[in-house]
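Running co-folding for zinc ion.
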Amino acid sequence: MNHIQYHICVANSHSHLFSVKITFPSNINSTYTLSLPAWLPGSYMIRDFAKNIIQPKAFAQQNQPLDLIKIDKQTWQVTAQAETTTLEYQVFAFDLSVRTAYLDNQRGFFNGSSTFLAIEELKELPCQLTIEQPEQQPNWRVATGLTRAKSTEKYQFGEYLAVDYQELIDGPVAIGDFDVSEFTVEGVTHHMVFTSQHFGDTERLCRDVAKLCQHHISLFGEAPFKEYWFITHLQAKGFGGLEHKNSTILQASRFDLPNPNKPEELSDNYKTFLSLCSHEYFHAWNVCRIKPKAFVPYNLQKESYTTQLWAYEGITSYYDDFSLYRTGIIDFDSYLALLAKTATRVYRGLGQHKLSVEDSSFYTWTKFYQQGADAVNNIVSYYTKGALIALWLDLTIRKHSQGQYSLDDLMRELWIHFGRPNIGTQTEDFINITNILCQQDLTSQINQMLTSASALELQPLLAEFGVVKHFSKFKALNSIETVVANQPIPYLGALFQNKELGVKITSVVENSPAAQAGLAVNDILIAVNGIKVTEQSIQQLSEHLPLNKPFSCHYFRDDLLLTTQLSFSDSPLTGISFVVSEEEKAKLWQKIIRN
Ligand code: ZN
């Protein structure tokens, strides 16, 4: 036996249990270490997946039980007594997120990182995975980017292959009676799988996503996979995605998909879903293959620190919306509106003055992934500010190369020199390539952008590309959409959610009217000036009451009814709008330069 055999089946869908059996080649009297990752690539938080492992047992041949020694929360050891050793356990699967595993009688899903124990000494061995069809589910099928064995047809239960443990856990698997569509781009078959009921126009969706896939393949010059899988968990509400080398797991609402009854409509939700598909697909190159040095190879047992997530998430975020424009799905003004939302997220809080993007990236394990009530005031997102830095790089490269190169060229160079040969990047690599493309030494300027906690100055650069940046006001109390306005617009400085009684505060900007009134995250605001608060009524109240005048405000903090004085101010100019002022110059940004 020169491979590791993994076997998974449904143990009890009502109790959300998978059964896993692993058989590996062993030397008699040798000790083997078994462990589960503590985190999974793309989601930078210690998640302790081993907590869902139930009754692990080890056996020698003929079912002779072996001692399994506990080492720590996610590690066991076993001493072999035969040429093969077998492990058996169950996995509790009840997390509908994209990160772990889920099972009920409607569908099943698992990431290998939270399901399959690694045999540390044999991590380089090929893996064979048998996925067994549940007897009660004759209509269920399989969707995964893992390689099918010769005996297994596409969508069938059976044997799947991985070259090693890392590849095994990078191929999440969905099982169920799902809907699937296929399309081909550059000879690569792409699969669109929906694991629950939907009402979407999948033909239109495939047409649009195919354009985005073509865009990314052209940008990098090649598709580094033989097939690709978009696997979407549809729910009532939900949003998110996780990238893998030839697949992505997405989470969306059933109603985010394009409405077949309205073929002309391009809803905001549909645009957001397309942008998510674009984002995760871009990651197939940028972070799954071009990676920070700290991730080559991954150490999944504990935190892996990198200061480069501004590049891996920021550049990816820049292209997710920009590719919608470049493929003709949205026009340039709509693109600028999306970019303005990103910029507003950076500028509306105080975090950009307190944390650099390098530090935001380094502390992702705590500050970003475990955000507290203070997030809007004390952290800057390496996604949003990273996207603005990507914009700065794109325009700077275009400017200094007299329109000969763009950020596309930086990405292509990274692909050729780091992604394809699997060499980890350092920050200098991004700077060096930029300097070469620009024929200028921009090292200190770029370092300053990455390491200092100060606002990014985009205005002069944008002006050279015919776009004016305005500081604008917030359109409504509970919105980060902005508007250029001379008249006063009421502002609270808090975002909130409608509740059965009142509205629940979800963020409070430092020094805003809400902060000055002493309101905090999780407070339930129930009345202002004696009028019952709803999301709608508080907006109307703010428009009818005079600004900067205090009014009584009643709210619950936990179960205590409290009173304060609250006033609405005129909206500060911390929103961002972008407007094209010179069409000709804007073309220099819109132009796709091909080699
Ligand atoms: Zn991402």
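Result summary
The radius of gyration is 26 Å.
The longest helix spans residues 202-220.
Job closed.
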